[in-house]
Structure formats: structure tokens, C-alpha cells
Amino acid sequence: MKRQLPPLNALRAFEVAARLQSFSAAAEVLHVTHGAISRQVRQLEEWLGLALFERQNRRVLLTDAGRGYLAALLPAFEQMEEATVRLQRLPGPQVLRVNAPATFTLRWLIPRLSRFQMAHPQVEVRISTSNEAIDALGEPFDLVIRGGPQDWPGYQGWEFLAEQRLPVCSPALLLRQPLLQPDDLAQHTLLHTATLPEVWSDWLAAAGVADLQPAQALRFNHFYLTLQAALDGLGVAMGPTVLVAEDIQAGRLVTPFTQPRLGDWRYFAYIPLRNQDNTAARAFRDWLVAVAKPPGDASQRA
Looking at the predicted structure, is the pLDDT value of residue 298 above 60? Predict the structure, then answer.
């Protein structure tokens, strides 16, 4: 049903002017002109069809109708004020500033982030990506994800995820040019990432073909570009197991060799020592540890 309410701005002007018994004082409180208060009150009187004030030169006095109306309105305004104060005192969303490597964010963190948001709706996660050293970051963060372990002054780290690296490529690429043994990589294009310049040479040495020369090499400045190139069949990339697991499971990528695997690469959540009492940062750290734990693994990572 439509409410029979007068103009609310006019109602507010009347309530203040009636309490203060002055249009000028009401104008100061509401930060408007004396004329604006006079017009608002006149509008309310016309809407009601009643005189609320007696104008006496520079004074205004409430009429009987005005006094009765003010008495009825005051509790309503007090209730609105109390409700507003209670609402303002409610805790707002807690902002959590997280910095993580771009490829890790795209391929591991974002696909799982909704689980954290569902469990912690009061936390607003703001993620930025970077591969810079923690001490080179230009702004403070509540939690930083980096490889490790590293001893960053002023930070404490918790391991939550480990991965290994081995060659990956698209199934279509293997149909064109099979890979039966490491020597066969000489017929392929190897995909490199600028931030991981030694990863292919380390794997080739571990596979016993340190002197292998590929047919071609492509280099990218971001690792997620390297993985996308592998998905598109441009060549063979060194894939981090945890970041390509879903692609392998879905058949978008394959692992032509299961051995050798480069040693563990571990991810750590680093929280500033000055921020150890940040409940949102601790909750995010605990969530990372829990969501990264392999199914059936009841052990607690340190």
C-alpha cells in the first residue's frame, strides 16, 4: 500500500525548526538558508492544510497543531537515529590484501577462491599479482604468496603446497610428432619462460640429454603465456604439476615422460610479523593449507 507521507525534506526542516523554535537556527543545523527552511515548512503546511507555526516578526511559535505534530514525530526521528547508529556500528567487510605470482593466481588460486569467500563472507579479498621479491614490493600486503622457503625479514612463512616439474604438451602435438624418449625432444620446439631460464637445462641434464638441441625454441616473459602456448600445440613446456593437474585430467595436456621430475617447488604464505593478529590473514593462511592438502592426507603441514 502507498504510504501517506509528506515530503520528507520538508518534514525534516519542520522537526528541526520546531525543536529549536527558530528558522535561522534550523538553517544553520541543516546547512541551508533561512529561506530554504521557510519554503520547506510552507510546503509541509500546504500539504497538511494546517498552520504549524505562527510568524511573529522575527519569531516563530508553534501552533497547537504544530506542537501535537512535533510530539508525534519526535519518537519516530529518535527511532530512525538509533537504527542508523546501530547500523553504522555493525562491523563492515574486512579487507585482505594478497599478493601472489600471476600464473599461480590464474591457474590455482582463482579457481578455488570462491570456497574461501563462501566460508568467510565478511572478508573482502583484494588480489594483486607480482613475481617481485617481498622486500621489493612497493606497498604493504597482509599476506604474500611466494616460493620458498625464504627468510624474509619481518615475515613469517607457512608452507602450504608443493609441486614438481616435468614436460607437458598438447595431445595433438604428440599425434604430429611422437615423444617416446627424451632424445625425441630434438624434433620439437621447447617453450621457455624468462623468469625460469634454467628449468629446461636442469631437466635435460637430469634426463641424461644435457647437450640436446631442440628444433626450435620460443621464449615468453610470463609463465602463463608459456602454458597457453603448450595448450595451443606450439611446443613442449616444463609444467608445474599442481598448476597443470586440471588440464591433464581434462585431456588438454599430456605428460609424455613421467620421469625425471625436478625437485619440489614449494609455495609459502608469508604474513608480516606486525600483522600476526590479523584474523583475515590467518584465516586465509589456514584455508590455503587446508585446500592444498591432498585428499586423505590428515597430516598438518608446518
Answer: no
